[in-house]
Design a protein that fits this description.
Helix content: over 70%
Radius of gyration: 28 Å
InterPro entries: TLV/ENV_coat_polyprotein
CATH class of one domain: Mainly Alpha
Number of strands: 2
Structural class: mainly alpha
CATH architecture of one domain: Orthogonal Bundle
Length: 136
């Protein structure tokens, strides 16, 4: 039971290129558990490195998305101003499109850049936490 569970764990961690199915290797890992711990430690470090790379890519992607959303919001506001100018003889943009509520123009351009900046900062902190320590 223990050996099959260990093999499933090793397979799940992505160590398929190592041949742990041979009886000699399994017996060797049972006799010298430090070797198995060293192998698993190496793979855990590889997983952490991979996670850190993915976090850094996520930060780059979110930063670009935040910039894109900000630029899109600016373009939409400029288009709204142009339409308002063109439709001024009909009462403006809001009146022509029926966007008035109680006589006031209601247009919502949400800005989620603060939320995105917060998420980017949190992921950056987590990625820095996963970075290898220089003190060991």
């Amino acid at each position: 039971m223990y050996k099959s569970h260990t093999l499933k764990l090793i397979t799940r961690l992505g160590m398929r290129n190592l041949n742990f199915s041979q009886p000699g290797i399994i017996v060797g890992l049972d006799l010298f558990p430090g070797v198995g711990v060293a192998i698993l430690s190496k793979w855990v470090n590889n997983i952490i490195d991979s996670l850190q790379v993915h976090m850094n890519l996520t930060v780059k992607g979110f930063t670009q998305l935040s910039l894109d959303v900000h630029n899109l919001k600016t373009v939409v506001a400029q288009q709204e101003m142009a339409l308002d100018y063109l439709l001024a003889y009909q009462g403006g943009y809001c009146s022509a499109l029926g966007l008035t509520v109680s006589g006031q123009c209601v247009i919502l351009l949400p800005d989620s850049s603060d939320n995105m900046t917060e998420i980017i900062n949190e992921i950056s902190i987590l990625a820095d936490t996963l970075a290898p320590s220089k003190n060991y």
